[in-house]
Amino acid sequence: MSTAHVHRTPDRDGAGEAVVSVKNPVRAIAAATIGNALEWFDIAIYALFAIYIGQNFFPSADPGVQLVQTFAVFGVSYLIRPLGGLILGSYADRKGRKKALVMSIRLMVLGTALIAFMPNYDDIGILAPIGIIVARLIQGFAAGGEFGAATSFLVEQNGKRRGFFGSFQFASQGLATLMAASFTAGLTAVLSEASMVDWGWRVPFVFGLMVGPVGWFIRRHVDESPAVVAASDTPKSPVRDLFRNQWGGILIAGGVLVVSTALNFILQYLPTFGIKQLGLNNSLSFVALMITGVILTVVTPFVGQLSDKVGRIKIMLPSAIAIGVSVVPLFMWLIAVPSFLTLALVMTVLGLLKALYFGALPSVMSDAFPVHSRATGLSFGYNVTTAIFGGFTPTIAAALVAATGQAVSPGYYILAVSLVSIAALIGAVRIRGIR
């Protein structure tokens, strides 16, 4: 069992909040990080294999329309995330972070298994795309509750190192990107195009079922969040408390997340952009995403640790400005010099800027809510934001290029959303006193 000591300090509203430090949180952090990575891998791999999934489940004479249809299903799964966030987030606040994490993992296994073994359109007709939609909705519901429960679980391991421990939420997403890109680059390099369309795309979804054993390990061997154990003011309805008292927290948490979410999905879209719009090699395009995955996995915890020492806003605000200023020139450079080296350099720069921004992001979002409704607030704020600015970003990017005929148009989208996050960061300082 982990050992902890508890002392009480004033929270932002002047009430006493138990601040708990766990002496040996390694097992809990490792379990949560690996589980997160596998869950986000299951989500991300769909976007990377959109070309092949479209050919199997969304038949169309126009490849461009087919790709938009496939990405639209990717986006539809994000519409159910706020509901999953409210239900599973409330469950995490009432019954504990650990139980909610296990439930979300079980649902993710179900959704991923449906995609991995779903017969093609040629075999069962319209039931095939319907089955994919159902599977993506299950995945979206599960992911909706994962963020709030896992982020709360991580930041509550140590009250004085919230930035560092919370950063593993997004470091795990970087690891998921790395794994997804590695599978994509490896399979497209080894297998023929016919094999990829026929069965190769299913391999990473089968691998994604490994999240199941992680859920079992969490259930059997990881202790509950010490802050939840120490809390004495858990409301009967965290959802009611959220909508009555926490609107400021919702707006801050969602607002600071906007640019990170949109940029994340632009990074996942860029390999497809390189293949479809610039004619780059399939395998090499996904190698560029692997580089980004390494950066996000390795750099993010260092940024989180630094934020505990110098302050989180001091790191995030310049990073948001840099993202907004640089993204359009980077897109223009990629279009003017379409090569693997250019794509890799563009994704490296964007990956570094993203790591700088979201290393401290989980702890900032967590501080927008009190402990008794933190998982609910984080889940709802996160998932509304990802539904609006994240889930449909690949669709918006592809549609903008198709509508305007300008391949640089996704860059202007990122520029616009960066302004939203800059405003939210200023609000976090002035309204919540977050530093």
In a nutshell, what does this entry contain?
This protein is mostly helical and about 425 residues long. It has helices spanning about 25-50, 50-55, 65-75, 80-95, 95-115, 120-125, 125-155, 160-190, 195-200, 205-210, 210-220, 225-230, 240-245, 245-275, 280-310, 315-335, 340-360, 360-365, 375-390, 395-405, 410-430, and strands at about 5-10, 15-20. It contains 21 helices and 2 strands.
Task: Explain what the structure shows.
The protein is mainly alpha-helical and 435 residues long. The chain is 78% helix and 3% strand. The chain has helices spanning 26-48, 50-57, 63-76, 81-95, 97-117, 121-124, 127-155, 162-190, 193-198, 203-208, 211-221, 226-230, 238-245, 247-276, 282-310, 313-336, 340-358, 361-366, 374-390, 393-404, 409-432; strands spanning 4-10, 16-22. It has a two-stranded antiparallel ribbon with strand order 1-2. Helix 1 (26-48) packs antiparallel against helix 7 (127-155) and helix 4 packs parallel to helix 7. The model is unreliable at 1-17 (pLDDT under 50).
The helix content, as a percent range, equals over 70%
| SSE string, helices as H and strands as E | EEHHHHHHHHHHHHHHHHHHHHH
Structural class: mainly alpha
Placed side by side, the strands forming the largest sheet appear as 1-2
Key structural traits:
435 residues, mainly alpha, globular
Map the helices and strands.
Blueprint: E1 4-10, E2 16-22, H1 26-48, H2 50-57, H3 63-76, H4 81-95, H5 97-117, H6 121-124, H7 127-155, H8 162-190, H9 193-198, H10 203-208, H11 211-221, H12 226-230, H13 238-245, H14 247-276, H15 282-310, H16 313-336, H17 340-358, H18 361-366, H19 374-390, H20 393-404, H21 409-432
Antiparallel strand pairs: 1-2
